[in-house]
Amino acid sequence: MGNKTSHDSDVSFIAALAELLRENDLTELQVKRDYGENDSLNVRVSRQTQTIVQASAPAAAAPAALAPAAPTAPAAPAADMSDPSNHPGAVTSPMVGTVYMAPEPGAAPFATVGATVKEGDTILIIEAMKTMNHIPAPRAGTIKRILVEDGGPVEFGAPLVIIE
Q: Would you tell me how many other CB atoms lie within 10 Å of the CB of residue 61?
């Protein structure tokens, strides 16, 4: 019966870990607690961020899709001038990290303003947790604006470039 009490507290401990994960925007947490001989708790709490990333790109177009198409389409370009993330051609960051515009220091940048890109072309790299993540162009077009600096930090969902 003594173990039941400690396992009830494990449930609130795991809930606290999940809250920590969310509050600190972490993707994974792992903890091991030893209670004594043959009695321990090994917990791994993680969350999938890639699925959220895929949903964020169409989210900018969602309000326009819900309204009748004709009146909404002319209004969209007016909104994009004040906030680049509202621009229909905005490519947003799928993660928090550091932006690199070229494959290595001193090399030519992946993309420049005015350059034509094909869908899938790497437009920049975001380094997150020592991993270099190549960010592909979601569609073909011309790079109209680059909204980030080489070596600068970027937040999740922040606009990176405008492709038209």
A: 12
